[in-house]
Design goal:
The protein is an alpha/beta fold. A five-stranded parallel sheet has the order 2-3-1-4-5. α5 crosses α7.
Length: 178
């Protein structure tokens, strides 16, 4: 495992897990959200976003997290491992909602230098990350299951972690350095 992509629906713990794994393995951690989001909730245009991903994934080892399907043509061919954090809906909903409330209360900046912060107003808007979970949970699961069986991705080793315990055990078991 030298080029790892961590996937999962919003609130599944991708970024936290990827950060811990990258630190443990001595690899670079790449967050697609950090590459994508600009100040004032503006989005990086695809051409520029794709270039950022291509540059970030040129190194010998990395752990990338994020679910931007339109970017898979850049990162998936370069990867050797996909780790899918596939927690039950109720747990993901709980993690997503509690994280959003925490962020709204503390006003923590989501991605350094963007000034983007969660708010209660945003949590209950059409741009709600909680609403996004409801919209994407089942389609995401189906899409990833299909990819796991696809010849196009046969070069990848897939790990599907279905509980917090499996996530924790995976981190404990993998000590190889990138």
């Amino acid at each position: 495992m030298k080029k790892i992509i961590v996937i999962g629906v919003t609130g599944s713990g991708k970024t936290t897990f990827a950060g811990k794994l990258a630190k443990k393995l001595g690899c670079q951690h790449i967050s697609l959200d950090e590459l994508f989001w600009l100040a004032d909730w503006n989005m990086t245009p695809d051409k520029e976003f794709f270039e950022k991903i291509d540059q970030a994934t040129k190194s010998e080892s990395w752990v990338l997290d994020g679910n931007y399907g339109r970017t898979n043509h850049i990162s998936w061919p370069k990867a050797d491992t996909i780790i899918w954090i596939d927690l039950p809906f109720w747990l993901t909903f709980y993690q997503n909602l509690s994280r959003s409330i925490y962020r709204a209360v503390t006003g923590v900046e989501l991605w350094k230098g963007t000034g983007n912060r969660e708010s209660f107003l945003r949590m209950f808007s059409k741009d709600s990350i909680v609403l996004w979970l409801f919209k994407t949970y089942k389609p995401h699961k189906k899409r990833i299951e299909d990819r796991m069986g696809s010849a196009e991705y046969s070069h990848l080793t897939f790990h599907r972690l279905k509980s917090r315990r499996e996530v924790h055990e995976f981190l404990l078991e993998h000590n190889e350095f990138c």
